[in-house]
């Protein structure tokens, strides 16, 4: 296979959400002596960006985006060990979950899929998560951002609890905290001392990008 | 009617474990096949489609998918399946009319046929909308109960209880839910409709215990009232929902099962969410022995759960039509509005949603609501319900073609700002709250919109 054929195969398999195909294409590329960084930047990344754009336009849907993110991850698992640390794309880690008392998680799942296709490493700690678990996991895993999601009005105090617990434990400065979900707002984020508020799943991505720059 | 909630309890713990992400990811591929097989097609020029054959095909697709897919249960990670015979046994033995409430305030539910003059129920309230507790909450509920079009009153969500936050799994959650229903009872007594039936999803109840605690003949939810038990999106349930349903049923309380198929989510496109929604109505009806299923399609792009997106209106319509034509089982069309009280947009949204519900052979509400929280409190008023109720009554009997044209004109009025609507005002700014009198400006806006709707063909008699 030529270089352009391999790049096209990487693009197509990520776009189509075919992890097995992406994995095979990445291995072919390595065997053919292609640069792993080039395969990521010119083959896989444009595909995942296309998926994200189409999702935004309502032309692709959550299951397709999740499949593409999985294909991207499969390709990265093959390629990243061959990239020098200084060269490799820096990925920020985000811990995200639905706060205690709330089992609505589809909004969180959409945010996770979008973050993944935008290059973030996401740790999903699920739904109805106690505040202590958010704090302990964030410290243990050394993430940069904590994402708190909730749909119910009653979930909102739990968001504030997580931030207070971070402060009480003396680790607040280690993390950026962002919130989102139906009843939340920028005003509420400001009130509880969150670092940001994502009104939509897409704004959660741009917010994450801003937060890691700070 | 005895449904299959016993079977649901039994089967929730049987069979092989299915991981949640496997279940989620398997939804859309099969829906794509069913969209093709049953030729389900969304047409943006037809928020209210006039295609009986497609409505019937959607029902068949929903039935096939419900049988095949079943409901995934969070606690056990197992999938509960029901057969087509079991579903029909429930639907065919379901009977109307059913009567709710007491004394002079009783109302009757009947199955509605398309293009018929069958009287719809209007269920008015603000579930999901954050409200100031105590006397202000009572005023909100009085405002809803005073609307003569309103058949049942639905709750709002108290923002605090006794000045304290409502924390999940806390005793204050139980106390809050009991207070909440007490305030609703106080409100309907004060407006002279003490026997009005209640339709309640306690805003204080993130968990099951408070929902169970409000079942109380003296001052809580009584026989003949309604309790919510929602399915989770998509095609999921858990013990919490089953506990609510079981407690309600065994105390003579009707169960209303909420389903919320999402466009852009696991079900994919509008067509996929419509098939998924039809399947969820069937499964929601039987798994909780429900008296009514409330359909609440949501669009991924609207964070506060508005049902007034063009595509969600289409789902409410086509699923409503499918059930009106193929069963006698009633659907309530949830009405969640994107804009807030005090704006023109909120009135156009309410009118559009009412027209869709009624012309599609179903019932209006609960509504009008919208998810609010934090400092965004009391952003709802009785005028939105007046628009919802009066429009619902006026369009009974309107054919789908005419209804579709009017809804499109409504959409032209609010679609451009959907997702980023004007801020709106609190009820306290729109009313003399002591007397519960709407101020002139807000009433004039209502009359202006109603006058425009009348000129388009909505036959209001007053």
What can you see in these coordinates?
- The complex is a heterodimer of chains A (214) and B (462).
- Chain A is α/β, with parallel strands linked by helices.
- Chain A is built from 9 helices and 5 strands.
- In chain A, strands 2-1-3-4-5 form a 5-stranded parallel beta sheet, sandwiched between helices.
- Chain A is elongated and about 55 Å long.
- Chain B has one domain: TIM Barrel (Alpha-Beta Barrel).
- With 462 residues, chain B is of the alpha/beta class.
- At the A-B interface, helix 4, helix 5, helix 7 and helix 8 of A face helix 3 of B.
Helices and strands in order, then pairings?
The complex is a heterodimer of chains A (214) and B (462).
Chain A lengths: L2 H14 L2 H13 L4 H21 L5 H18 L13 E6 L7 H12 L3 E4 L6 H11 L3 E5 L6 H13 L7 E5 L5 H7 L3 E3 L2 H13 L1
Parallel strand pairs in A: 1-2, 1-3, 3-4, 4-5
Chain B lengths: L4 H7 L8 H6 L1 H12 L13 H18 L1 E3 L4 E3 L3 H10 L4 E3 L6 E3 L12 E4 L4 E2 L3 H11 L6 E3 L2 E2 L12 H20 L7 E3 L7 H6 L12 E3 L7 E2 L1 H11 L4 E6 L2 E2 L6 H18 L4 E4 L2 E2 L10 H17 L4 E3 L10 H16 L3 E5 L14 H13 L5 H15 L12 H4 E2 L4 E2 L1 H17 L6
Parallel strand pairs in B: 1-11, 5-7, 5-17, 6-8, 7-9, 9-10, 10-12, 12-14, 13-15, 14-16, 16-17
Antiparallel strand pairs in B: 1-2, 3-4, 18-19
Helix pairs in contact in B: 3-4, 3-10, 4-10, 4-11, 5-10, 6-7, 10-11, 11-12, 12-13, 12-14, 12-16
């Amino acid at each position: 296979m030529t270089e352009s054929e391999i790049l096209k195969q990487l693009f197509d398999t990520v776009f189509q959400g075919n992890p097995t195909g992406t994995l095979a294409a990445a291995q072919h590329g390595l065997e053919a002596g292609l640069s792993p960084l080039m395969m990521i930047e010119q083959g896989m990344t444009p595909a995942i960006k296309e998926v994200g754009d189409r999702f935004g336009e309502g032309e692709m849907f959550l299951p397709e985006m999740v499949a593409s993110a999985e294909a991207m991850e499969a390709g990265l698992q093959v390629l990243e060990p061959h990239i020098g640390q200084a060269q490799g794309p820096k990925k920020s880690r985000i811990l995200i979950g639905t706060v205690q008392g709330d089992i609505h998680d589809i909004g969180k799942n959409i945010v996770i899929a979008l973050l993944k296709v935008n290059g973030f490493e996401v740790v999903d700690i699920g739904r109805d998560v106690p505040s202590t678990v958010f704090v302990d996991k964030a410290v243990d895993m050394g993430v940069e951002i904590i994402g708190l999601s909730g749909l119910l009005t009653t979930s909102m105090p739990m968001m504030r609890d997580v931030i207070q617990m971070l402060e009480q434990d003396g680790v607040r400065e280690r993390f950026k905290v962002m919130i989102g979900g139906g009843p939340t707002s920028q005003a509420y984020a400001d009130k509880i001392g969150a670092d940001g508020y994502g009104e939509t799943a897409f704004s959660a991505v741009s917010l994450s990008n801003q937060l890691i720059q700070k | 009617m005895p449904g299959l909630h016993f079977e649901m309890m039994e089967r929730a713990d049987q069979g092989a474990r299915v991981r949640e992400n496997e279940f989620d990811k398997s939804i859309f591929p099969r829906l794509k096949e069913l969209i093709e097989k049953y030729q389900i097609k969304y047409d943006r020029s037809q928020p209210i489609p006039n295609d009986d054959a497609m409505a019937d095909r959607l029902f068949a697709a929903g039935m096939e998918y419900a049988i095949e897919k079943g409901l995934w249960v969070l606690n056990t990670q197992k999938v509960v399946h029901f057969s087509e015979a079991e579903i029909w046994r429930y639907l065919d033995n379901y009977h109307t009319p059913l009567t709710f409430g007491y004394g002079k305030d009783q109302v009757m539910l009947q199955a509605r046929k398309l293009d018929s003059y069958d009287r719809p129920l209007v269920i008015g309230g603000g579930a999901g909308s954050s409200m100031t507790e105590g006397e202000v909450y009572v005023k909100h509920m009085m405002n809803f109960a005073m609307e003569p079009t309103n058949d049942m009153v639905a709750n709002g969500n108290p923002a605090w209880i006794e000045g304290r936050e409502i924390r999940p799994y806390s005793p204050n959650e139980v106390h809050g839910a009991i207070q909440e229903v007490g305030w609703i009872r106080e409100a309907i007594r004060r407006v002279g409709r003490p026997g009005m039936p209640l339709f309640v999803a306690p805003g204080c109840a993130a968990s099951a215990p408070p929902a169970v605690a409000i079942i109380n003949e003296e001052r809580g939810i009584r026989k003949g009232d309604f309790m919510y038990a929602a399915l989770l999106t998509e095609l999921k349930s858990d013990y919490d929902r089953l506990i609510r349903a079981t407690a309600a049923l065994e105390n003579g309380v009707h169960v209303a099962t909420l389903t919320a198929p999402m466009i852009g989510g696991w079900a994919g496109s509008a067509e996929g969410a419509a098939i998924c929604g039809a399947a969820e109505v069937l499964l929601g009806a039987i798994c909780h022995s429900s008296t009514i299923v409330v359909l609440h399609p949501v669009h991924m792009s609207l964070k506060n759960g508005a049902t007034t997106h063009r595509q969600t209106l289409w789902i409410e319509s086509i699923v409503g039509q499918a059930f009106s034509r193929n069963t006698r089982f009633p659907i309530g069309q949830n009405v969640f509005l994107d804009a807030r009280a005090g704006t023109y947009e909120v009135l156009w949204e309410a009118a559009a949603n009412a027209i869709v519900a009624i012309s599609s052979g179903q019932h209006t509400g609960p509504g009008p609501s919208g998810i609010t929280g934090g400092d965004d409190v009391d952003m709802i008023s009785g005028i939105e319900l007046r628009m919802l109720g009066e429009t619902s009554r006026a369009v009974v009997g309107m054919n789908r073609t005419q209804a579709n044209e009017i809804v499109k004109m409504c959409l032209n009025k609010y679609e451009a700002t959907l997702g980023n609507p004007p801020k709106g005002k609190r009820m306290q700014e729109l009313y003399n709250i002591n007397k519960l009198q709407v101020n002139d400006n807000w009433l004039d806006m209502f009359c202006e919109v109603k006058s425009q709707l009348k000129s388009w063909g909505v036959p209001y008699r007053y």
